[in-house]
Model the fold of this input.
Amino acid sequence: MTLLLRAAELSGHTGPDGRATDSRASDSRAADSRAADVRIADVRIADGRVTEVGPALPRRPGEALLECRGGALVTGLCDHHLHLHALAAADRSVACGPPTVRDRAGLADALAAAPADEHGWVRGVGYVDTVAGDLDSAGLDVLHAARPVRIQHRGGARWTVNTTAAARLALTSASHPGVERNGDGTPTGRLWRADDWMRARLPNTGPPDLAAVGARLARLGITAVTDATPDLDTTALDAIGTAARGGALPQRVHLLGVPLGTPAPEGTTAGPYKIVLADSDLPDPDSLADRIRAAHTTGRAIAAHCVTREALILLLVALDAAGHRPGDRIEHAALVPAELLGDLAARGLRVITQPGFLAHRGDDYLREVPTAEHPDLYRCHSLLHAGVPLALSSDAPHGPLDPWSVLAAAVRRRTPTGAVLGPAERLSPRQALDALRTPPEAPGARPPTVTPGTQANLVLLHTPLATALASPDARVVRHTIIRGQLMAE
Done:
């Protein structure tokens, strides 16, 4: 069956390519004012691809018709860094941090009201120390001791368990290096980057169903995702592959956590190999260079988790020793000193960053990050100006999933209280949209356009594009089309 979209607004790019010469690297206001090629046209889709674009295309017998009424039709959005299974698990967890929970009493109430899973466990997410301090088992016992509780810090790297949970996990005899201990050797209840270890000791419930996540992504206009979870095991890979092949995840799925030498599950693709540079345990340059070489030898680029200046400098040193490969990328790039912008560009590195954190955590950054480093936080405009390919993402569930709120954060850079963090790093609305539309295998490249022959991964908006970008909001999405199929509302 074919689909004819009648009277859609189509718009071209604001420049000739996706690097420093196009709108994403030029003055933001001037770039948007020069947006060219806006026109109203009909678009025909058949066999999952755009087949015709033109004025007043005749409707064929039996062809489905969708009246666009001048609403913008753009190529689909891509979330270049999220965590699918964690996102699904977060939907069945209790929120333990702002804006839902802001203080100790609120956390105690939330835990008391939280339903347990079928094995009696309570799972909390999104905790931040401003709620009830640096929680350990004893502190969590005061809030909720009756049932086993585990709470994930909003950064994703730390879990805290109460005494009941610690006993079930046998923390006292645990040998995992991420199990934090007091000076006398007793566990504190804090576990650092120990997800796999903890999962192996929890009741086996299997990976969470991804159908609700796939539907939610489609409603937001997201037609492709990159799962950035490192070191995916066979169970996780099989579950994601099954969801992608069966349609529970209709989006194109790109995976950073496929182990070296392992093929990606059918229905997905393997991206660069994820390497986490944990701030609490940075490797030495030689060891990191060896890991990079191992990935490059298999034909894969690397995707390095870098949050601090120290991690970024270490990565650059190791890459110079190991050699660079097209497609090497930096995840987060939360702090980038100005003097390193040229180094990133010269090495051909791509940056995948999350300005949505400014809208959710910006006031914390103002308090906790030295004032001199504020301009370095989640850079966007200066990266483009330096010629670094830039893609935006959510890091969901640790950051806001909604790409329209990510777009707004990149444009406004406002904290929850309204302060502006790094005004010079603002993107224009069109620059931000382009950074959300680049292909998963080439983040920061030129976004595709609605032209014959391209795969029909499209988003139809209720309004013209200029109207949608003036006030970014997910409610502007009218329909999402993935591989030529109109997704259910």
